[in-house]
Amino acid sequence: MSGLTDSCCNTPATETVWAKKGEEKILHVANHEQHEHKTYRTGPKTATTGIIGVYDVMGYHPTGIQFFDRLAVAHGGFQVSVPNFFYKTNKVPPELFGDRPKLMEWLGANGSYGAPSHVDSVIHAAVEDLRKDGCTHFVIYGQCWGALKALEAAADEKMPFLAAGGPHPSMMTEELMKNARCPVILLPAKDDPDMVPLVAIANEKNTKIKSEQHRFPTVQHGWTGGRGDWSNPEQKKCAEEAIHLLATFTNKVVEASKA
Predict the structure, then answer these.
(1) ∠ CA(244), CA(248), CA(253), 5° rounding?
(2) What's the total number of domains in the chain?
(3) Distance CA 64, CA 59 (A)
(4) Residue 153 domain-assigned (yes or no)
(5) Which residue among 84, 147, 167, 179 sits deepest, i.e. has the most Cβ atoms within 10 Å of its Cβ?
């Protein structure tokens, strides 16, 4: 199940519009002192559960921002932080789409969990920023490539995450499921691989909350992010369902951690 889906490699971003509900903040990132890092923060400042959002390869796309804005106010609300991981270019260069090897090479150079990109340091800085603003429990959800980063963070013993996963996940593997230190929720689209076997591996662990897969058979890969257009009623309906599932799962793992 490794690699990006064909639709991720070959489909351009949609043209959409969304009025942001949050604001950008500066992040102080270890290992990256020579760069200025920003994160997009949204959600009620009184919430004590923090969500780290990891965008897809389209970066800060209006549909992806809308997804995290809406997740931030679902089911009681969460403080959500979406760092700009692609700080050099803001998104994958458009000319790489259609060339899988070059796209994967770029992601390796610009989106590695450890060196040289230090996505882990960016995530850690975002967590600490949320902690300073009153968050005491944390989950991490990503879209497409972002779900891979979420699962890599879920395996990192230095991270505090109670859940990981996200919609239209790419590059999911048995190893990721075996290494995850928390429950996982995967929301594949119609053209994503079957992830039921992966969730079964995750559920071999003795966790209070079981991992889940929910397939969306009527929408394409990327519908909550850079390939999404919620003027399409079916895409909007499925996006709202995905938000409901993630918010519900978040609240379940938080409550279980308190028990």
Answers:
(1) 150
(2) 1
(3) 8
(4) yes
(5) 167
Q: Tell me if the bond preceding 93 is cis, omega within 30° of 0.
A: no
In the chain, the DSSP E strands lie at 23-27, 37-42, 49-54, 79-83, 137-142, 161-167, 184-187, 212-213
Residue listed under structure tokens 């991720």: 8
Q: pTM for the full model? A: 0.96
What CATH number does residue 169 fall under? Answer: 3.40.50.1820
Domain annotation covers residue 46: yes
pLDDT band at 138 (very low <50, low <70, confident <90, very high): very high
Q: Is residue 70 part of a domain?
A: yes
169 within a domain of the structure (yes/no): yes
The answer, yes or no, to whether residue 246 has pLDDT greater than 90, is yes
Is the pLDDT score of 133 beyond 60?
A: yes
* End-to-end C-alpha distance for the chain, whole angstroms: 35
For residue 4, the one-letter residue type is L
Q: Which structural domain, as residue segments, surrounds residue 205?
A: 6-258
